[in-house]
Write a structure and sequence with these properties.
It is built from seven helices and no strands. By secondary structure, it is mainly alpha-helical. It has a single domain (3-102), classed as Orthogonal Bundle (434 Repressor (Amino-terminal Domain)), CATH 1.10.260.40. The N and C termini lie far apart (33 Å). 11% of the residues are buried.
Length: 103
């Protein structure tokens, strides 16, 4: 992992979310060029801002760095909903997932 990975990942997550660089900058409380400067390689976010970016995308820092998951926000949303289920319902969902994964 390097600075280029962080820039590419922020850009990919931003595009998945469907927001412009300007909108994301505004949403994070920064000037309109904030995300552009990150994406273009002019700067990197400090740790506190990185954590805010993760919150903005509704993912954990571990999910940010796990590039094996194409849409970590969607996966996190599924996990959040699964945590609300009782054990019987979870087992039912798991059986459906296994059936779908075989196909």
């Amino acid at each position: 992992m390097d600075a280029d990975f962080i820039r590419r990942r922020i850009t990919a997550l931003r595009l998945q979310k469907g927001v412009s660089e300007y909108q994301m900058s505004y949403d994070l409380g920064h000037s309109r060029s904030y995300v552009y400067n990150i994406s273009s390689g002019k700067s990197l976010p400090p740790m506190t801002e990185f954590l805010e970016i993760c919150r903005y995308f509704a993912i954990t820092p571990a999910q940010f760095f796990d590039d094996s998951v194409e849409n970590p926000a969607l996966l996190q949303s599924a996990i959040t909903e699964l945590q609300k289920l009782n054990e019987d319902d979870l087992m039912l969902i798991i059986s459906h997932i296994r059936r779908l994964a075989k196909g």
